[in-house]
Amino acid sequence: MVRDLSGLPPYQRIAAQIIERIERGDLQPGDRVPSVSQIMETEGVSRATAARVPGVLRAEGYATATPGVGTIVTKPKKLTAGADRLAKLQAGGPTLGDSERVEILDAVREEASQEVADALGLELGAEVARRRRRYLDGTGVVTVSTTWVSGAVADQAPEFLEAAPLPKMTFGLIEERTGRRVARRRDTVALREVPEDVAVHLEVEAGTRTLAVVNHYWDQHGEPTEYAVDYLGADRELSSEYDLD
C-alpha cells in the first residue's frame, strides 16, 4: 500500500520519499543520502527545511553520519517490543508487582546532543529538557529511563522539570498543556553500551552492554514530541503477551 504523504510537513515528506527509495533498493547501504543542496534544488524548499531531512533519516535508522564523508544510507535493524508493557514499565505501574517504586533522579535543561536533536527535529546544541528516572523492585534496578522534550515544550509544560511523578506520563502532560496528541510511537530494542552518567544509577560499570529500549513519539501533525531511552538492569528481559481470540 502506498503511504499518503500529503499531510506531512515538507521535511518529513521528503524524508519519507527517500526512505521509500531505500526500501525499494534504489538507494543501497553505503550510498550517500541526497545533500541539503540537492534537496533544495529538486524539491524547491528552503535550506532550513532541507537541513532537517538528514536528521529524520538518522532518527529513523535509515542513515548515519560519517565524518569526512557525509550522511550515508543504512538499513535499520528493527525489533518491536510490546508497547503497552513498556509504557507501564516506564510509568512505574503495577506491571512488575507491588514492590516496584520510582526515583526521580534529575530534571534539567541542557544542550541537545546529535542523537537527541535528530529525534526531536532540532539543531545540534538546541535547548532541550531532560527528565531521568530509576525504577526498582524487590530484586534491584529495573530500568533507568531518560526522556527529552524541546525547550519550548518544557516552557509550556513546566511540570516536566519538577522532581515529582507525572500521573499521565510525559505524552499525557504534553497533550494536556499543548493540545499535541501522540498519534504515532516507535519502540526500538537494541544492545547498547551504558554511558557513564547512567551506569552509576543502573549499578553497572560504564560501557557494559545491556538491553536498551528507544522510544520516539510524534503528534497528530507528524512533528516529534518526545524522545526516550531506557537502559534495563542486569538480567532483566522484555516479554509481550497477546490475546489471539
Topology:
Layout: H1 10-24, H2 36-43, H3 47-59, E1 63-66, E2 70-73, H4 83-91, E3 101-111, H5 114-120, E4 127-137, E5 140-150, H6 151-156, H7 169-178, E6 182-193, H8 196-202, E7 209-219, E8 224-232
Antiparallel strand pairs: 1-2, 3-4, 4-5, 5-8, 6-7, 7-8
Helix pairs in contact: 1-3, 2-3, 3-5
At a glance:
Helices cover 31% and strands 30% of the residues. It has 245 residues and is of the alpha+beta class. Helix 1 (10-24) packs across helix 3 (47-59).
Give the key terms.
single chain, 245 residues, alpha+beta, 31% helix, globular
**Helix/strand structural class:** alpha+beta
Gyration radius (Cα, Å) is 19 Å
Distance from N terminus to C terminus (CA atoms, Å) equals 27 Å
Share of helical residues: 25-40%
Shape: globular
Count of β-strands:
8
Which sequence of SSEs, written as H and E, runs from N to C? HHHEEHEHEEHHEHEE
* Sequence stretches where pLDDT stays below 50 over 5 or more residues: 78-86, 89-97
Mean pLDDT: 86
Instruction: Report the sheet with the most strands, covering strand number, pairing sense and barrel closure.
Output: 6 strands, antiparallel
Question: How many individual helices?
Answer: 8
Strand fraction band?
A: 25-35%
Give, in spatial order, the strands making up the sheet with the most strands: 3-4-5-8-7-6
